Amino acid sequence: MKIGVIGCAGRMGQMLVRAVAEAEGCVVAGGTERSGGTAVGRDVGVVAGLDALGVPVTDDPAALFAAADAVLEFTGPAATVTHAAIAARTRTAHVVGTTGLAAADMAALRRSAQETAIVWAPNMSLGVNMLLGLVEQVARALDPDWDIEIVEMHHRMKVDAPSGTALALGHAAAAGRGVDLDAVSTRVRDGHTGARHPGEIGFATLRGGDVVGEHTVMFAAGGERIELTHKATSRDIFARGAVRAARWAKDREPGLYSMADVLGLAK
């Protein structure tokens, strides 16, 4: 299976290239970087810290999609939307781990997914996707007197907050309660805020060091508290999940899919 990587010279991009190269039955179809980037023209494998693969880094995403069975992308919202449109034209499976997507971005992904299989997930690890299911189940089982708070921590270089995974956990909790997250979420508390509003789902964001990703969902009531936590110690888990998603998406009918679909956890 031929798998390409958008943003192949970045930290996550290099990890994706290595994961594809190490996966049985998969080959690196190529990689792209922005025009003018220092990696353009160099061997994709060498850029990722591997032996040469005989494939140069280019600045032509359209050619990469045309040459690949699937393309992996962990970049930014604007680039992802542009590349999803290319995937739709070439009917190439597109695996997206980009976070920070706005409602308009998601709408654009859905339009592109009418023409090809797109797997989007804010987190592609098996553990996190199991956690999502547990959070929804617990939220459904507990009455509204239980307060829900979500705490996440990532490395100092992460640019979006709360993390995409934290928001996904919030949506899972809201789904369990049968409410709209946007109507009940509290992102920031500062100064004299007054008492906590009943039924709200709170978020706390921490940034520092080289933390790969830690997420805890707290269910707090009088006299007791339940905490569900996932800690990632290596980005390898995300890369392996992305390759698994690419294998699953190849030759799949058009549609916007999640890791729950890939892992057989969807309802």
Please explain how this structure is put together.
- The protein has 2 domains: 2-120 and 235-262, NAD(P)-binding Rossmann-like Domain (Rossmann fold, 3-Layer(aba) Sandwich); 126-232, Dihydrodipicolinate Reductase, domain 2, CATH 3.30.360.
- Helices cover 37% and strands 24% of the residues.
- It starts with a strand and ends in a 5-residue tail after the last helix.
- The longest helix has 16 residues, at 126-141.
- By secondary structure, it is α/β, with parallel strands linked by helices.
- The mean pLDDT is 95.
- The protein is built from 10 helices and 12 strands.
- The strands form 2 sheets. It has a 7-stranded parallel sheet with strand order 3-2-1-4-5-6-12, with helices on both faces. The chain has a 5-stranded mixed sheet with strand order 8-9-7-10-11.
- It has helices at residues 11-22, 44-47, 61-67, 77-90, 103-112, 126-141, 164-177, 181-184, 236-249, 259-262; strands at 2-6, 27-32, 57-58, 70-73, 93-96, 117-120, 147-154, 185-186, 201-207, 213-221, 224-232, 255-257.
- Helix 1 crosses helix 9 (236-249) and helix 4 (77-90) runs parallel beside helix 5 (103-112).
